[in-house]
Design goal:
Order of helices and strands of chain B: HHHHHHHHH
Radius of gyration of chain B: 22 Å
Largest sheet of chain A: 6 strands, mixed
Number of strands of chain A: 10
Number of strands of chain B: 0
Strand order of the largest sheet of chain A: 6-7-8-3-9-10
Oligomer: heterodimer
Order of helices and strands of chain A: EEEHEEHEHHHEHEEEHH
Number of helices of chain A: 8
Strand content of chain A: 15-25%
Radius of gyration of chain A: 19 Å
Structural class of chain A: alpha/beta
Number of helices of chain B: 9
Number of domains of chain B: 1
Strand content of chain B: under 5%
């Protein structure tokens, strides 16, 4: 369904992704893991067209999305959703307006939109009394749920999650993971999840490790803990020894 | 050494050309969006309220104080040659043709232009604009069109307030402070101020409104790099818009005079 072919991106000559190749099949959950600053979010933004790659291809159902016009892109990505790391809720709008913004902007009346928003709010297990609250009045977990509800309103077939559980306590993280899993099962979604949370692996089909600007390892999620690949072995166990270098070489020798 | 200088000049020139191109393209896309998509009237009115009503007190204060000072200065100068009866005309022409539009433009730049940049800049760095894009919402239609159109429409009204307040301030100084005849003040205005002076001032204000909101929206839209980036973008927005207003004022004065 989605295929990344030799995807490269540089910022002012500094290469972030150096040729990413990855295939994501329809109806699957793929976790992309990797150290901070490896370009995981950049990769996700290139998939949905928020950033243009320096070179390479992003194929969606066989069609290259690079260089498409705004109109063509809107059609192609109509059923793509994106859940941002910090939810990216519009802080001047309340929860109702945030979730229903797409429909309201398309000319639907608030009266028409309200029951749809309420339904999505229920799906993400938020009480109706949050409807008229502003993002500043919500906790981190609630914001992420509102972000997810806003995505669901577009009836997505593909959802891209950028670190959906980062910054949340273990219980809220679990609730969010289960919510994502439920949505996945209910709507047969294709999900791409950027995460550092190894607990997420139990809901995934495939795990891809991004390191040094490339996918170093791509395996089935159920075999990830048995993997002999030195990169994945080191990363998921959080070991300082291994092929993935820490930022300060031999830092531990100094202390 | 020479190659390095050529390289530096070349890079700078390309950078300036790129910025100007992007700046022009931003307005072009906004105008195209205005004519090809449905105008969000409620958003337009909300922006007119934010730019216009919220700037009213500043504009009134600017108009009154400028009109009063101008009347006083004119009196000190003109009393030497016995031309006190022309103070009304000087204040009115000064406020209507130059000071009203320019001062309103500069005050609104500081009051509303900076707010537009800070708001959109914050939306940019907190990924709110990206969120709109992923929802396939036209960000030009949502953010740029209502602000730029609102600024262009509302600034002439604000300038009109400045003009009226300036003339009224001058009247108060002439009649109640300097003890001059109210008839002289009003008669000289009627004699020397013409409708073309007012329309010229209002046309200038329209252009200044466009400049303020265009620069404000563009700088916000292009904000990079966290809270510091928002601060830099806001400062840059105020400085750029102010300079553009002063430059545009000269050329508009010349253009309107030749009409």
């Amino acid at each position: 369904m989605i295929k990344l072919v030799d995807l490269k991106k540089d910022f002012d000559g500094k290469e972030v992704t150096k040729g990413v190749n990855l295939e994501i099949k329809e109806g699957t959950v793929t976790c992309i893991i990797g150290r901070s600053g490896e370009g995981k979010s950049v990769l996700l933004k290139q998939i949905i067209g928020l950033m243009e790659p320096s070179s390479g291809q992003v194929l969606v159902n066989g069609k290259n999305t690079i260089g498409l016009s705004e109109k063509e892109r809107n059609i192609l990505f109509e059923h793509f959703g994106y859940v941002f790391q910090f939810a990216a809720l519009l802080d001047s709008l309340n929860v109702f307006e945030n979730i229903g913004i797409k429909l309201l902007e398309n000319g639907r009346s608030p009266k028409e939109v309200l029951p749809i928003v309420k339904e999505k709010l229920q799906m993400v297990q938020l009480a109706e009394d949050t409807l008229y609250k502003y993002p500043s009045e919500l906790s981190g977990g609630m914001r992420k749920r509102v972000g997810l509800a806003r995505t669901l309103i577009t009836k997505p077939k593909v959802i891209l999650y950028d670190e959906p559980t980062t910054g949340l306590d273990p219980i809220t993280s679990r609730v969010i993971q289960e919510l994502m899993y439920n949505m996945q099962q209910r709507f047969n979604l294709t999900s791409i999840i950027i995460t550092h949370d190894v607990n997420m692996f139990q809901y995934a089909d495939r795990i891809a490790l991004l390191h040094d600007g490339k996918i170093q390892h791509n395996c089935e999620a159920k075999t990830v803990w048995d993997s002999k690949d030195p990169y994945i072995h080191q990363f998921i166990r959080g070991l300082s020894e291994g092929p993935i270098q820490t930022e300060i070489p031999h830092a531990k020798d100094k202390f | 050494m020479i190659l390095r200088i050529v390289d530096f000049v070349g890079r700078k020139t390309l950078g300036i050309c790129r910025s100007l191109g992007s700046f022009g393209l931003f307005l072009f896309t906004t105008v195209t969006t205005l004519f090809t998509t449905k105008l969000k009237v409620n958003k337009l009115f909300a922006q007119m309220e934010r730019i216009g009503v919220s700037s009213l007190s500043v504009v009134v204060l600017t108009g009154v104080s400028t009109g009063m000072a101008l009347a006083l200065q004119t009196y000190f100068g003109f009393k030497r040659v016995g031309g006190e009866q022309f103070i009304g005309a000087i204040v009115a022409l000064g406020m209507v043709r130059e000071l009203g539009p320019v001062l309103t433009g500069l005050m609104v730049t500081g009051r509303a232009g900076s707010a537009i940049t800070a708001e959109i800049g914050t939306m940019r760095i907190t990924e709110q604009i990206d969120a709109l894009k992923t929802l396939r919402i036209n960000t030009y239609q949502y953010l740029a069109v209502p602000r730029i159109l609102a600024g262009t429409i509302i600034l002439p009204f604000l300038a009109l307030f400045t003009m009226i307040c300036g003339i009224a301030g001058g009247y108060v100084v002439c009649v109640h402070v300097l003890g001059l005849s109210p008839d002289d003040y009003i008669t000289s205005i009627k004699m020397y101020a013409e409708m073309e002076d007012i329309t010229g001032g209002l046309i200038k204000s329209c252009v200044f409104g466009l400049i303020i909101t265009w620069v404000g929206t563009y700088k916000g839209y292009r904000t990079r790099g966290g809270a510091r980036g928002v601060g830099k973008a806001t400062t840059s927005s105020v400085v750029t818009a102010s300079i553009m207003i002063l430059i545009a004022n000269y050329f508009l004065t010349k253009f309107l005079e030749n009409l």
